[in-house]
Amino acid sequence: MSTIKIGIITVSDRASAGVYEDVSGKAIINTLNDYLISDWDDVYKIVPDEQDIIEKAIINMADNEKCCLIVTTGGTGPAKRGVTPEATEAVCDRMIPGFGELMRVESLKYVPTAILSRQTAGLRGSSLIINLPGKPKSIRECLDAVFPAVPYCIDLMDGPFLKCDENVIKPFRPKKK
Ligand SMILES: Nc1ncnc2c1ncn2[C@@H]1O[C@H](COP(=O)(O)OP(=O)(O)OP(=O)(O)O)[C@@H](O)[C@H]1O
Ligand SMILES: Nc1nc2c(c(=O)[nH]1)N[C@H]1C(S)=C(S)[C@@H](COP(=O)(O)O)O[C@H]1N2
């Protein structure tokens, strides 16, 4: 069986320049390690807030690395250089707006500025791409909300079966594969 690969893309001018450590990308890896019982490998990249560079990173992880899931962090807000949702939409075949909608609703429990995130999700080939905000604490807040739907989404794309630790996160699969 081929290994499950998951892409993590940190989009931040300062983290990519080494001004600060990328805490958010590592938080994604730690959270997925908590959730998943299945063995998986991360494909990890830090990029600046440049639309073409973000697009190339997503395309490489989807088309070449064959990541079933790609999670981005950062660049989703109204700051002028924030273009991660635009890069995501540009490379996706189809969008799944419910991810962004649910993450914003859940995030409102933590911060009134949750509505500032334009985060979205979409499909490219056999990859699901999900945007998260940049703040380290937003990673778990958002992933806890939407991850229960992720394994079934990947099932429906004929991707690998993601087995989760149900004491940590309960995936919902309406139909057995
Ligand atoms: N990847 C990250 N790792 C650690 N902290 C982060 C990360 N991204 C954002 N933050 C924190 O969240 C704050 C708000 O993030 P902001 O939206 O300004 O993104 P940023 O990536 O820092 O911006 P820029 O791309 O201009 O460097 C930052 O000041 C920083 O403290
Ligand atoms: N769960 C959660 N969502 C959140 C936040 C947060 O702290 N927690 N921060 C908000 C803020 S302050 C901003 S500006 C937007 C966009 O963040 P980004 O530009 O770093 O992606 O995400 C929002 N969503």
From TrEMBL:
Species whose genome carries this gene: Flavivirga algicola
SUPFAM superfamilies cross-referenced by the UniProt entry: Molybdenum cofactor biosynthesis proteins
EC id: 2.7.7.75
Enzyme class at the top of the EC tree: transferase
Pfam family, one: MoCF_biosynth
Keyword Transferase attributed: yes
GO molecular function: molybdopterin adenylyltransferase activity
CDD domains documented for this protein: MogA_MoaB
Domain MoaB/Mog: 7-153
InterPro entries: MoaB/Mog-like_dom_sf (IPR036425), MoaB/Mog_dom (IPR001453), MPT_Adenylyltrnsfr/MoaC-Rel (IPR051920)
Protein name: Molybdopterin adenylyltransferase
Pathway assignment: Cofactor biosynthesis; molybdopterin biosynthesis
Gene name linked to the record: mog
Lineage of the species this protein comes from: Bacteria, Pseudomonadati, Bacteroidota, Flavobacteriia, Flavobacteriales
Keywords: Molybdenum cofactor biosynthesis, Nucleotidyltransferase, Transferase
